[in-house]
Amino acid sequence: MATKTAKSKTVETPAFDWPFGKKNYILFAIALVIIVIGYICLGYGDDPNHPLTLTVAPILLVLGYLIIPFAIMAKGKPDEAESKPENAPSE
Predict the structure, then answer these.
(1) Which of 4, 16, 38, 73 sits at 20 to 30 Å (Cα–Cα) from 27?
(2) Residues 6+ apart with CB under 8 A from 62
(3) DSSP state letter for 54
(4) How far apart are CA 72 and CA 21, in angstroms?
(5) Contact 79, 46 (CB under 8 A)
(6) Is the residue at 54 inside a domain?
(7) Which residue has the higher pLDDT, 64 or 79?
(8) Is residue 83 part of a domain?
(9) Distance between CA atoms of 59 and 65, rounded to whole angstroms?
(10) CA pair distance 53, 43, nearest whole angstrom
(11) What is the pLDDT at residue 75?
């Protein structure tokens, strides 16, 4: 009777790699700080007609929320395949 032998294949799992690069996280942090400052300006004082509440806060909030998509879409780390030099000697 024939016996089946199991071939053990070594499967290499890739090391964990963050999906975004340093530039993405810096832009996202800047957007988050701008949004927090915008909400602080929005809640400034008891006077609802204060210029800080009526003009500066909405501008900061819109600016902060517009930076977030750019932070996501910004060019992050290049892949290893793309980072190879093009002047590599061919065989």
Answers:
(1) 16
(2) none
(3) I
(4) 10
(5) no
(6) yes
(7) 64
(8) no
(9) 10
(10) 7
(11) 80
Using only the alpha carbons of the chain, give its radius of gyration.
Answer: 26
Picking from 54, 34, 31, 32, the residue whose alpha carbon sits closest to that of residue 42 is 54
Long-range contacts of 64-69 (CB under 8 A, 24+ apart): 64/31, 64/32, 64/33, 64/34, 64/35, 64/38, 65/31, 65/35, 67/27, 67/30, 67/31, 67/34, 68/28, 68/31
What is the predicted pLDDT for the residue at 81? Answer: 46
**In a domain? residue 15:** no
Q: What is the pLDDT of residue 30?
A: 97
Is the CB of residue 42 less than 8 Å from the CB of residue 61? yes
Query: How many domains does the chain contain in total?
Result: 1
Cα–Cα dist 53/50, whole Å:
5
Both structure tokens of 31? 């957007």
Q: Is residue 3 included in any domain, yes or no?
A: no
Task: Give the tokens for residue 79.
Answer: 């892949």
